[in-house]
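Reviewers of the previous submission asked for a worked example of the structure-prediction workflow described in the proposal, so we include one complete record here. The input consisted solely of the amino acid sequence. No template or homolog information was supplied to the procedure at any stage.
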Amino acid sequence: MRWLVGWSSAASGTGPRATRRGAGADGSTVHPVGAQLLWGDPDPLWAVGDWRPDEVRVVQADPFTRLAVLGCCGASDEELRVGLLAARGGALRHLTAWSGSYTAVAQVGRRVTVAGDLAGARPVFHTEWARGTAYATAALPLADLVEAQLNIGHLAALLACPDSPEALGDGTPYIGVRRVPPGHALVLRDGARDIIGYEPTASLAVAAPQLAADDAVAGVRDALVEAVRARLDAPRHAPETEFGDLDPGPVPGMGPAYRRASRGGPAPGIGADLSGGSASATLALLAAGLPGVPGTLFGHGTGAGERLLAVTFNDLATGNGRSRQAELERARAIADNPRLHHVVVTAGEEALPYADLEGPLTDEPGPSLVTAERHRRRLTAGSADHLVGHGARQVLDAHPARLADLLMDRRRRHLLRPVSALARADGPAAHSFFVPFTVYRAARKLARTSYRDGLEAAAGRLLEAGRPGSELEPAVPGAVGASLAALTWFRPGPAARWLTGEALAEVSVRLGTAATRPGGLRRPGERRASAALARHAADHRIFEQAAEVRSQRLHAPFLDNQVVRACRALPESLRVQPGARASVLRAVLAGAGIRELPPGWGATSHASHAAAVRAGLRMSVGRLVEIFETPLLADAGLVEARVVRKALRAAAEGELLPLDGLAELVSTELWLRRLLSRRGSCWTGSEAPRQRAVAGGVMPRTSL
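From that input alone, the workflow returned the following structure tokens.
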């Protein structure tokens, strides 16, 4: 886990600030464990964790003006200096306009600016401390610093409506630690903080001018190419292993890649996922086709001209259905590229979801905690720098609520193809003839419902989430029902049905309070799509921590700032068309000179994932029921243990229940247990906190 941390205080030299300063080398008696000081007092900044030398860059215009960029950034030092001078004049957007994924911290005199990203994969957190403000890119260190207690209300909102920023607000699982929203920057002046948005906002009454479809797709292509190029231009790294560069020798039936994976270390150089889907395949083909220096600076990873290590995961435990077989065939066809070296990782029941519930403590809870070991097996067979296609669906696909945006712009004819595709999505049925009219009525109702009215209605309906037959449950099953449920200002999460009435009442109050605040000038589809992207980016960040492999970096170019901006410029009429994501990525590859793609390119299927989750639940249901005999979630008043145990048994027996909701409940329970059993703190020094975060344990029911 890697993070940066710093603070800004009001006083200097004497007074309360001096109680936190001493005679240490950096002038501070409080500093994070294992930290690298980037600059010192009066507003110090540290980089903590196993940062690579090329991932930490500091440029300085004068003794009082400097910029730190941490992560993968494609800008040169001169471009960083130009961006620093622009930020000194107030143009914060310049700090987020370079290719790659990074966090930028600019210091101009006593003003410190920390820019978060657009998606939320690199968030910024802050808290009050020592008559000033401390900030970090992780919430847990700040919770340790102020000895924070658990924020049970936030956990309730995270389970009830994970993709609703109205309910989550700027909170975190720790009381007093807050999050900077995506697309905003934290500005500190002598300890006082301000949250400033750096992206232009569109009007709700007048649609923003849109690019032509061809120009918008070309922008996506250029952004993706630059994002991949930023990773290729970075120095290559050879992972550190206990065996060094020595191979333990031939093993019957095992090649070098499998022996390396069994040792637990990735390969040198750069690699990518190759699942057979359009997103991962696009990144793999772009990385293999772009010019770059293969291998590492010391010659590792350059054997036989291999440029890119492509990894495909094959699950042997659930059996390969027709859709999964088609994905594997597409992956094999794509891997025929001579610039790719294809490795297929196979696994059985030991890699099913819920099979291994041990793992590291992450910054926050996330659904990936129950599948971390499954992904770690694939990533261990990858490279030191590994590309993944996470985020492509959220930035390219159209959220169903965008249909209401089209109606608000009086572009009804663009609804014909998407609603017709929905009518065919679930196969021939008696209601197929009425689906277009039903979807159109739902989109028109959303377009005519104000933001405040939508939230107030949602706050009232949320209290009924746990009752059978409530209107929160889709009246129509399948893709049509999911789309109709998404055509609202607010949608409860899949775990809401198992929360207690007290927890749902708390979330309902949060929604009611949010309805009284100004909602901004964003359209329903745009707002819902941004919320879904932010939730996915937050889950991706937890996935990185939960499935972390030593000496490996995961890169998700679809979550980069410039890629997100380019995808947002796509016309809504293009987004809502069936197969829009595949057509855009096909055009991206064609622009890069790659035109021969296997049959079935762009086909989507979640059946294999659902089958693996159900098989893992069936195999591990006994252990899960044992965990929920005395769950911490019940002690906090969020769930009734008996209800969750019943749901786990029913889902394992094949009853149609929301598996994602059960995964969120189990993940949150696991995270609570790991958090409360941890030892030590993130801080050291004579004035370091005397207790770790949540030292008081789980708060009682009345804390809701």
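Confidence is low (pLDDT under 50) at residues 12-27, 294-305, 699-703. We consider this example representative of the routine output the project will generate in years two and three.
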